[in-house]
Write a structure and sequence with these properties.
Length: 208
């Protein structure tokens, strides 16, 4: 059976996601190509950040789009297309994570959380932000370490951090993708940022 085509002369690249979904459900091949164009890089970026392995990220990306294409008819449109795609991509990556024995060893994030003295003042893990840190963030070695430290975050923190700070989603969007409350997203994001801040600070003082 031939797929239903979009109206003659219509440019699918200019269609909003809502109209694109309608064409997808009709089996329009050009609509499928447009979804790939819009989301393939974003999905790969997310899976690469979650898996920290290029081959696994490519596999997860491919599996995610196969799932998207096979299950578009089940998409109820209670969320946006992008939210649905991110959720499928995240689940594809997390399935690979669960199969990795070595990936179960995550850094205990609580060790990097602030503690407080009896008088209520914060006790810093290391001294406060080093003046050279902003410049050091541009350093290639530190950039590689940041990727490593992000990979060491447990999945519940890593997913929130990547969706919010790497992919640029808002708190409400992240909450929709992960099926969490907005306060839960904010809490996990705050803890992930604190952890990375402390790691960068330790690196800064060790190299000063």
């Amino acid at each position: 059976m031939e797929p239903v085509r979009h109206p003659a002369g219509a440019d699918v690249s200019k269609l909003p996601d809502g109209q694109l979904v309608a064409l997808l459900k009709e089996g329009d091949e050009t609509a499928f190509e447009e979804v790939l164009r819009r989301y393939e890089i974003k999905v790969y970026s997310l899976t690469r950040g979650l898996l920290h392995d290029e081959d696994d990220a490519r596999d997860a990306t491919q599996e995610a789009f196969l799932s998207i294409f096979r299950n578009i008819g089940r998409f109820k449109e209670r969320s946006t297309l992008s939210t649905w795609i991110y959720r499928i991509a995240m689940n594809a990556a997390l399935m690979k994570l669960r199969k990795r024995r070595q990936d179960r060893r995550f850094v205990p994030i609580d060790a990097y959380m602030p503690s407080f003295a009896e008088d209520g003042h914060r006790v810093a893990v290391v001294p406060d932000w080093h003046p050279a840190v902003d410049q050091m963030l541009l350093d290639k070695e530190l950039a590689a370490l940041l990727r490593q430290w992000i990979a060491e975050l447990a999945p519940e923190y890593r997913t929130v951090f990547l969706l919010r700070d790497q992919e640029g989603l808002g708190n409400e969007e992240v909450a929709a993708v992960l099926k969490l409350s907005v306060p839960a997203v904010k809490s996990r994001l705050h803890r992930a940022r604190l952890y990375l801040r402390e790691r960068v600070k330790k690196y800064a003082y060790a190299h000063n």
